[in-house]
Write a structure and sequence with these properties.
Number of helices: 10
Shape: globular
Strand content: 25-35%
Structural class: alpha+beta
Radius of gyration: 19 Å
Number of strands: 18
Distance between the termini: 36 Å
Length: about 300
């Protein structure tokens, strides 16, 4: 049963949604009805779970702030079990607060994987990793590829099984910031964007709804074939440069959340990853041009 087919459960003035995205199960409790509506819209095709029958990794609450703030500047506060890791957000920014809170939870608790700061997309069973630092245009490029038929595995986390090198899907809403919102709207009339949340801590943000197919196939891993380090530069012509294995290894290690923490296991996994992939850097100024180039990637090495 999907989240769209299952009504939210009520517990007093709170509603509860329990759903799975990739390897993670989430139970959300909140009195904020608009937040419930947005989660149900964004993750309509996610599998609904029974939290009484299966363990829940992330038990999250988004609560209203203190009563004294409700009349002037209503707040939303993210809780994960007994942790409250963030300062309150405006109440109407509850959805981006939830998404950022779940990013924090994954980064903290998914140490069984080699975690890369990378978008991951799949075509014909082979995965493309797009590792990038903030501001490189990673999310915009991942959204564009998703809208051109690539399967979204993740916008934020490349979760690598260190033993098999399988990339584990965790398809979630893609946060587009500032000018990227208009860029994606112009790129494809099929883009399903949620509301724009103005003046968040990362600027204006709107989320691209993850495709239903990506959510329905969120237990289907893919194996790495290509690593491309993208960098958007306004007005730049497309430039692609092949990287040596050593250079790719160094850059990829700098885009990992837990490479050093995993020690020898992380070193072995990262080494095997770059050895089985075509590795490039790419600078571009035109989204259609880079998408066309990535649609013509060479055959996988293995």
């Amino acid at each position: 049963m999907t989240l769209a087919d299952s009504p939210a459960r009520a517990n007093g003035n709170r509603q509860c949604l329990a759903y799975r995205v990739g390897p993670f199960t989430i139970e959300l409790h909140t009195p904020l009805r608009r937040l419930v509506e947005l989660v149900r819209w964004s993750y309509a095709h996610a599998e609904c779970i029974d939290p009484d029958a299966a363990p829940v990794q992330f038990n999250a609450r988004i609560e209203r702030g203190p009563l004294r703030r409700q009349l002037l500047k209503p707040q939303a506060i993210f809780h994960l079990e007994n942790d409250t890791p963030f300062q309150p957000f405006p109440a109407d920014h509850a959805f981006p607060l939830l998404e950022w809170g779940l990013n924090w939870a994954i980064a903290l608790r998914a140490q069984q994987f080699l975690m890369l700061h990378a978008a991951v997309l799949e075509r014909d069973g082979r995965a493309l990793l797009l590792p990038a630092v903030p501001g490189s245009g990673k999310s915009t490029l991942a959204a564009a590829l998703t809208l051109r038929g690539w399967r979204l595995l993740s916008d934020e986390f490349g979760l690598v099984d260190p033993q098999t090198l399988a990339l584990v899907p965790v398809p979630r809403a893609i946060p587009l910031k500032n000018a990227s919102i208009g860029v994606i709207r112009a790129f494809s009339p099929l883009a399903e964007l949620g509301p724009v949340f103005p003046k968040t801590r990362k600027g204006d943000v709107a989320h691209l709804r993850p495709p239903g197919e990506s959510l329905l196939r969120d237990r289907e891993a893919a194996y790495p074939a290509w690593i491309v380090f993208p960098r958007y530069a306004a007005g730049a012509k497309l430039q692609r440069q092949a990287l040596t294995r050593g250079h790719a290894f160094h850059r990829l290690s700098q885009n990992s959340f837990n490479y050093r923490l995993l020690g020898a296991t992380g070193f072995a996994a990262l080494t095997a990853l770059v050895q089985r992939c075509h590795c490039w850097r790419a600078e571009y100024g035109d989204l259609d041009e880079i998408v066309a180039a990535l649609d013509e990637l060479p055959s996988p090495l293995r």
